[in-house]
Amino acid sequence: MGLWASMKRSIRAMFGGVIEKTENPELILQQTIRDMRDRVPELNNSVAQVMATERLLSKSRERLEAQVVDLDSKIKASVKMGRDDIATAYIGQLQQAQVDLQKTSQQLEHATVASKQALKARDNYVLQMQRRSAEAMQLINQSKQAKLQEQLAQTMESFQIGDDASTFNEMRDKIDRRAAAADAKMQLGAASVDTQMQEIEREAMDMQLQDKLLEYKQQMGLLPAATERQTPALPAAVDERTN
Predict the structure, then answer these.
(1) pLDDT in tens, 75-87
(2) Which of 37, 4, 54, 205 is nearest to 125 (CA)?
């Protein structure tokens, strides 16, 4: 192995990995698609030139064919008029026109084949470009998905399950304790209010009963007059025998 080959291999070994890491597949594929599309106008120009050559040769052949017919007529007319000198000159022109016509016809055949091949090559290139573009778009989508998966994998690697789990558990316990304390305070407050209301109701009931008891005692004369309250007396029983 030569020295230069060894140096190239060493350089590729040193910098190949770095270059590969810095390459962005999505950008490279997008640039490749743009390059393929940029070649289409150039390819169309080449095809147009081939087709233009074919049309020029076709017109040249038509002109030479007309020239051959015209010279043939002039030769016949010269012979009839007894002008062999003029007929001889026309015969020379006719022979040259026939030679030119034969060459032009051959060139036209080649140009026609070349034009068809150029058109076919252009169509094949456009078809390949469309297929490559679709494939590139699919690869770009796969690259984006792979990038998201790599980011997710990196996130999962940097995510400390144990530490965060303990933090979540600690916060959950604190929240549970606060919620339990608040619930207990709410229940105690409700119980205190209910107790006070029950005591007030019992006291009001006792007062009503005491008032009734005093009314009966007053009506029965069991209480001194000074202690009598201004309360309506109960209706006395009516003795039917006195009526």
Answers:
(1) 999 999 988 899 9
(2) 37
- Location of structure tokens 């007309």: 66
For 87-145, give the DSSP string. Answer: HHHHHHHHHHHHHHHHHHHHHHHHHHHHHHHHHHHHHHHHHHHHHHHHHHHHHHHHHHH
Characterise 8 by phi-psi region: left (phi > 0), alpha (psi -120 to 50), beta (else): alpha
Alpha-carbon span 118 to 48, nearest angstrom: 9
Mean pLDDT, all residues of the chain:
77
Q: What's the DSSP call for residue 223?
A: S
Q: Decide: 34 and 64 in contact? Cβ < 8 Å.
A: no
58 neighbors 106 (Cβ within 8 angstroms): no
Alpha carbons 140 and 28: distance in angstroms, whole number: 10
C-alpha 172/C-alpha 182 separation (Å) is: 15
pLDDT at 13: 52
Q: pLDDT tens-digit profile of 125-169?
A: 888 888 888 888 888 787 777 777 777 777 666 655 555 566 667
Q: What is the pTM of this model?
A: 0.46
Per-residue buried b or exposed e for 3-38, using 16+ beta carbons within 10 Å of the residue's own CB: eeeeeeeeeeeeeeeeeeeeeeeeeebeeebeebee
How far is 172 from 178, CA to CA, in rounded Å? 10
